[in-house]
């Protein structure tokens, strides 16, 4: 479904990504793990069109279409939604209005089935549908950011640090919901510092260090890799 080939990205004279190549197959949950500053968010922002590769031989292919250089809203229209780090909800708008914004690239007004899908995964949002997004708790804002992305009916959902700043109980809940979204038919690329949970729910994973993929494989194999356990699992 998604393939990255030889992706370089630079911020001025500083190269953030060095020839990144990875693949996400339809139906998978794929994790991208690494320390702060490794280039994880840069990778996701490049996929969704917010950043452009700096090399001409790079390729980003989504559903057999090359999307590098494509405008972000066009990529969303193709079926790729990005939930950014830090949630980025519209604080002065209601939960309902935030959800509507998630469907703005679609033709026609979203139907009740679209809202019901979000409420199925996030019943708390239905209870707070008229509440201003800025008054929600951190966990509820994360749910809203994910629900807003689902309103675009994505085939691929990319998530950037969905557990950041959340209490452990809420983290468990968010990860169960991610699994449910995947079971319901949405492919997922997950960036997450909680490597233990990320590997637990993923099919495959890539390890990113200073802008380079240094390891890849089945998530269950990486979870038992001694170097990964020491560096990312705190064992």
From TrEMBL:
Pfam families: ABC_tran. InterPro entries: AAA+_ATPase (IPR003593), ABC_branched_ATPase_LivF/BraG (IPR030660), ABC_transporter-like_ATP-bd (IPR003439), ABC_transporter-like_CS (IPR017871), BCAA_Transport_ATP-bd_LivF (IPR052156), P-loop_NTPase (IPR027417). It comes from the Bacteria. Transmembrane segments: none annotated. The keyword Nucleotidyltransferase does not apply. GO terms for molecular function: ATP binding. Residues 2-235 form the ABC transporter domain. PROSITE patterns: ABC_TRANSPORTER_1 (PS00211), ABC_TRANSPORTER_2 (PS50893). Keywords: Amino-acid transport, ATP-binding, Nucleotide-binding, Transport. The keyword Cell inner membrane does not apply. Belongs to the ABC transporter superfamily. This is ABC transporter ATP-binding protein. It comes from Desulfosporosinus nitroreducens.
